[in-house]
Amino acid sequence: MDARVTGNAAFDLSAWSAGHLARVERALERWVNADPTGGAEGGSPAELIAAMRYAVLGGGKRLRPLLVLAAAQAASGERFDASNTPEIALRAACAVELIHAYSLVHDDLPCMDNDVLRRGKATVHVKFGEAGALLAGDALQAMAFELLTPDDESIPARQQAALCRLLARAAGSGGMAGGQAIDLSSVGVALTERQLRQMHRLKTGALLQASVMMGAACAEVSSQAEDALMAYGAAIGLAFQVVDDILDVTADSATLGKTAGKDAEHDKPTFVSLLGLARASEYAQQLLVEALAALGRSGLSETQALQALATRLVNRAC
Amino acid sequence: MDARVTGNAAFDLSAWSAGHLARVERALERWVNADPTGGAEGGSPAELIAAMRYAVLGGGKRLRPLLVLAAAQAASGERFDASNTPEIALRAACAVELIHAYSLVHDDLPCMDNDVLRRGKATVHVKFGEAGALLAGDALQAMAFELLTPDDESIPARQQAALCRLLARAAGSGGMAGGQAIDLSSVGVALTERQLRQMHRLKTGALLQASVMMGAACAEVSSQAEDALMAYGAAIGLAFQVVDDILDVTADSATLGKTAGKDAEHDKPTFVSLLGLARASEYAQQLLVEALAALGRSGLSETQALQALATRLVNRAC
After folding, report:
1. Fewer CB atoms inside 10 A, N or C side of chain A?
2. What is the separation, in whole angstroms, between the first and last Cα of chain A?
3. Hey, of A135, A185, A266, A268, which one would you mutate to test binding to chain B, going by the most B CBs within 10 A of its CB?
4. Any alpha helices (H) in B77-111, and if so which ranges?
């Protein structure tokens, strides 16, 4: 018997995702451009924009944007399709993806993971040089905050500020960058399970959780719903990394679109090296149960997409 | 006769600056820390914070924070001293300095300028490694937006959003990062004076101008005053770079606290290589006159600090 937990079978995640993915792709295509805000005289330099577009467009599972949109839908209580997605949710979705994309560009640099393959393509520094990749990452981080602060009053200032707050904290020293710093210093070091969880809570968990909370910030939610979404975000954030560690040993590079077996090769501690494959898989399923339970106590109605995303995230093959 | 333009002799810039500099230093000391927002469980990793603090604290002229405070003073119509600086202006001042500091850390990396000396100290990557410097810069950029978005309602949401908007645009592809990309691709290339101005308008001008406009955003100003401050910011932004180019050939490394003669050595186009030393100096003075004239038509009263800062910036020796 398959021990995997499955979500609400009645909800068609593929159909829901398809429209939203196309919409997000078009929005990124439009915004990651020479003059996204219509502001700067003369726009941005072409070579920098080319590197930024290469880093962002035409690849990636867009998990974070989908989480933003699914959480915004749950928070608003209305089912979105690609035609009625609110501008604020679309901006939040793209902003999170820009932060994710910048982190991959910098992660791949020779002084970090020194990786040449990402999503089946040459990494940004291989194609645009190290300095070009450094600047593209830097500019993508800034652009995320540009996207969240349009000056056309399409998004209320209170929400612009809330979204910037959530994203900045998740990206910074108490979030993603902090987690990467711990990762960097943990090569060849024996970590406890608790320390490993803390590293991943920051490194990947913070931005995944922020995706959920930024979606929630696109509407008004009760503090009960907010707490539940926080718990959901924490559980899937950790589950994502546990599954990543499992796939690093069980999948091949072609399936992953990146170099497999890298963690073991670099002697990095992982949930698999610490718990073994079987217990790591059980742990991922347990976290999925926690995530779904959190949604159950949220008091929100439109949580089908969040349920289905959590389920797919944990049971994914790449 | 000395042809240098001088500002209002009655205003004592040194006395004004001293209190503000101490206040800014204390604020940076407090905020660039393991848990600046009181949010993240467990705070940020110590080694990352150490690199960030090394990059930010105990050095630098703090020109950008002083511009923020001087502009906030002009916009509010009240003279600030270190005891009554509004929280919003202090946060804006420190946020701009964090962006400046991150840009220096990344600029100094081997794949960029490969510099080992900054403010008379070893650069961040020499002391903390390349990956450590990369992450410290990334985290400093995020922290700038954290500083601008406190969740304690000490700053109205409208101003939080406006400050994030100004800073993100100035830092990104249409501002500082864009200018650095042009700089990168201009080594050994013959630029026209217009292209050189465009490069510097983005590379250093955008953040200096944003410092002025962020100060203005700390209070309400008329559109006449806003236009005048924009013009002031543009003029001093460009003047700063012209003087930088002059000092690169006329000052020595010990005075500058960084490697002198670097631009010529790297065959980078500068205002001196393009205009010659005498005409570059005249150009700087002309820009100072433009900046002071803009203040004159702003309709603002408390502009003495802005006048004095512009004058010092152009007539500086390091």
Report:
1. N
2. 22
3. A135
4. 87-107
Q: Does B33 touch chain A (CB under 8 A)?
A: no
Tokens 């612009």 — which residue?
Answer: A160
Q: Are A116 and A126 in contact (CB under 8 A)?
A: yes
Nearest CA in chain B to A41: B174
For residue B84, what pLDDT is reported? 86
Question: In whole angstroms, how far apart are CA B107 and each of A277, B104, B180, B249?
Answer: 43, 5, 9, 20
- Cβ B211 vs Cβ A74: under 8 Å: no
pLDDT of residue B120: 86
Q: Does A139 touch chain B (CB under 8 A)?
A: yes
Per CATH, the number for B13-314 is: 1.10.600.10
Helices marked H in A77-222: 87-108, 124-128, 130-147, 157-171, 176-185, 193-200, 206-217
Q: What is the CA radius of gyration of chain B?
A: 19
CB B98 within 8 A of CB B143: yes
Using a CB–CB cutoff of 8 Å, tell me whether B39 touches chain A.
yes
Interface of A with B in 185-244 (CB under 8 A): 185, 198, 202, 206
Identify residue B300 by its one-letter amino acid code: L
On whether any CB of chain B is under 8 Å from the CB of A45, the answer is yes
Estimate the crossing angle of helix B130-147 against helix A87-108, to 10 degrees: 160
pLDDT digits (tens, 9 = 90+) for B275-290: 999 999 999 999 999 9
Contact across the interface for A181 and B134, Cβ inside 8 Å: no
Q: Are B215 and B24 in contact (CB under 8 A)?
A: no
**What is the reported pTM?**
0.93
Phi-psi map region of A46: left, alpha, beta (phi>0 left; psi -120 to 50 alpha): alpha
Q: How far apart are CA A214 and CA A79, in angstroms?
A: 17
Interface residue of A145, A185, A214 to substitute, partner B, most B CBs within 10 Å = A145
The shortest C-alpha distance from A307 to chain B (Å) reads: 26
Total Cβ atoms within 10 A of residue A114: 12
As a whole number of angstroms, the distance between CA B262 and CA B105 comes to 17
Domain boundaries, chain A: 13-314
- The whole-angstrom separation of Cα A268 and Cα A266 is 5
Return the residue matching tokens 């749950």: A74
Q: What one-letter code names the amino acid at B224?
A: Q
| pLDDT tens by residue, A239-269 | 999 999 999 999 876 666 666 666 666 677 8
Report helix angle B46-56 to A176-185, nearest 10.
Answer: 110
| CA-to-CA separations, A115 to A204, A268, B78, B130, B227, in angstroms, rounded | 18, 15, 54, 16, 47
Backbone angles phi, psi at A17, to 5 degrees: -65, -40
| Chain B residues in contact with A181 (beta carbon < 8 A) | 44-45, 47-48, 132, 135, 139
Distance CA A236, CA A240 (A): 6
Q: Cα distance from B4 to chain A (closest Cα, Å)?
A: 31
Q: With CA atoms as reference, report the closest residue to B109 among A274, A18, A309, A129.
A: A129
More confident residue, A184 or B5: A184
Which amino acid is it at B178? G
Which A residues 91-110 touch B at CB under 8 Å? 102-103, 106, 109
Contacts of A158 in chain B (CB under 8 A): 157
- For the segment B204-222, the average pLDDT, to the nearest whole number, is 97
